[in-house]
Amino acid sequence: MNIEFSEGRIIANQHELVVRLNGSARVTLQAMVDDVSLIGKGANVVTAMGSGVNWSVRLETEQQLQSLSDAIGVAIQD
């Protein structure tokens, strides 16, 4: 599953999540699905915490977050 947002794109499957951010730095964030949380209620935030790694990315819409939730099988927290 590919999800485009204004700052880049998310590539996701049931095992892994990769966030590629636009820009000259070519930043890539990667996490196993077990380390990912999805926060809804207008925040629309994807967070990854585990093994000394901690990052988060804000999406523009609830629909993007729902699409990601469907792709990786992680429920959205309210």
Fold topology:
Layout (H helix, E strand, L loop, with lengths): L1 E4 L2 E5 L3 E6 L6 E5 L3 E4 L5 E6 L2 E6 L3 H11 L3 E2 L1
Parallel strand pairs: 5-8
Antiparallel strand pairs: 1-2, 2-3, 3-4, 5-6, 6-7
Name the helix and strand elements from N-terminus to C-terminus, one letter apiece: EEEEEEEHE
Count helical runs.
1
Uncertain runs are none
Radius of gyration: 11 Å
What structural class results from the helix and strand content? mainly beta
Shape label: globular
Helix content bin: 10-25%
Largest sheet: 4 strands, antiparallel
Number of strands: 8
How much strand? over 45%
* Arrangement of strands in the largest sheet: 1-2-3-4
Integer average pLDDT: 95
Give the CA-CA distance, first to last residue: 23 Å
